[in-house]
């Protein structure tokens, strides 16, 4: 009986583990350089979205992943507003091989953070008195795969920081 308990305990210690610890806004920015004149113009926006992720090890198995969404909206040739949110999360991740850890930090965690970042950005924009900014979902698995292909073509190897 004791051998079975020890085996179960050892398997539990080496089994992959993933746990979300906290989600928070790390940084938030909004600028409307042409206010209030921009509100008196015909609204024909063009939206440019810049998306970025980064991660770092906080301590042993705890990782911070930061998803940055930067949006520049122009009305004609004039910048109507610039908004940026850094949505972050702390994740407990244990017992993954390097490839799985890289995928988890590069695609899985940003996928969890995106709905929070999108809602924060939308709320920020509407508080600036602009129409809601409803960003389409993002396929982080596809973006991660593209980045891996780019790195392989350049002779780089993905690293977990």
Description of the molecule:
It contains 3 helices and 4 strands, in the order H-E-E-E-E-H-H. It is of the alpha+beta class and 161 residues long. It has a single domain (16-153), classed as Bacterial Protein-export protein SecB, CATH 3.10.420.10. Helix 2 (98-127) packs across helix 3 (140-153). It is elongated.
Question: What's the short story on this structure?
Answer:
The chain is α+β, with helices and mostly antiparallel strands and 161 residues long. The protein has three helices and four strands, in the order αββββαα.
Topology summary:
Elements: H1 2-14, E1 17-31, E2 45-59, E3 62-75, E4 78-94, H2 98-127, H3 140-153
Antiparallel strand pairs: 1-4, 2-3, 3-4
Helix pairs in contact: 2-3
Q: Residue-averaged pLDDT, rounded?
A: 90
Count of DSSP strands: 4
| CATH architecture designation | Roll
- Main sheet summary: 4 strands, antiparallel
Order of helices and strands: HEEEEHH
- Major sheet: order of its strands? 1-4-3-2
The number of domains is 1
Question: CATH H-level name... which superfamily?
Answer: SecB-like
Poorly predicted segments: none
Helix content: 25-40%
Structural class from helices and strands? Answer: alpha+beta
Shape: elongated
Beta-strand percent range: 35-45%
Tell me the name of the CATH class. Answer: Alpha Beta
Given the structure, what is the number of helices? Answer: 3
The end-to-end span amounts to: 41 Å
**Radius of gyration in whole Å, from Cα?**
21 Å
Oligomer: single chain
CATH topology: Bacterial Protein-export protein SecB
């Amino acid at each position: 009986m004791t051998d079975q308990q020890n085996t179960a305990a050892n398997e539990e210690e080496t089994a992959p583990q993933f746990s979300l610890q906290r989600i928070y806004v790390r940084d938030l920015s909004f600028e409307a350089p042409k206010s209030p004149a921009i509100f008196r113009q015909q609204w024909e926006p063009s939206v440019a979205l810049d998306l970025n992720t980064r991660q770092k090890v906080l301590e042993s198995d705890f990782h911070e992943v930061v998803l940055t969404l930067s949006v520049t909206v122009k009305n004609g040739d004039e910048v109507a507003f610039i908004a940026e949110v850094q949505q972050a999360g702390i994740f407990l991740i244990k017992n993954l091989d390097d490839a799985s850890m890289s995928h988890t930090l590069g695609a899985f965690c940003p996928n969890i953070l995106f709905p929070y970042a999108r809602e924060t950005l939308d709320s920020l924009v509407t508080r600036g008195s602009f129409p809601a900014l409803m960003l389409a979902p993002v396929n982080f698995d596809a973006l991660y795969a593209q980045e891996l292909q780019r790195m392989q073509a350049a002779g780089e190897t993905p690293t977990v920081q």
